[in-house]
Amino acid sequence: MPKELITYLVKALVDHPEMVQVTEVVGENVIILEVKVAKEDVGKVIGKSGRTVLALRDILAAVAGKGKQRVVLDILE
């Protein structure tokens, strides 16, 4: 669920949605989502002063709270 949600949200933010790749690494109590976007879209995903990525992380924390897991979002360049 978190992977699909982040994929949908990030694709809506960027100019090149076909370049969005979300990799999910599942641990014991943590899920790591690594997001790769086109170079020119990195700034759009991070946002001014990091506000957009913080909002995405807040949404993930709310979703993950239901499943008692921690979700980490990494933006890769």
UniProtKB/TrEMBL annotation:
It holds the Pfam family KH_KhpA-B. InterPro entries: KH_dom-like_a/b, KH_sf_prok-type, KhpA. GO terms for cellular component: cytoplasm. It is found in: Cytoplasm. Keywords: Cell shape, Cell wall biogenesis/degradation, Chaperone, Cytoplasm, RNA-binding. Gene3D superfamilies: 3.30.300.20. One of its GO terms (biological process) is regulation of cell shape. SUPFAM superfamilies: Prokaryotic type KH domain (KH-domain type II). One of its GO terms (molecular function) is RNA binding. NCBIfam families: PRK01064.1 (NF002201). Forms a complex with KhpB. A probable RNA chaperone. Forms a complex with KhpB which binds to cellular RNA and controls its expression. Plays a role in peptidoglycan (PG) homeostasis and cell length regulation. Belongs to the KhpA RNA-binding protein family. This is RNA-binding protein KhpA. The gene is khpA.
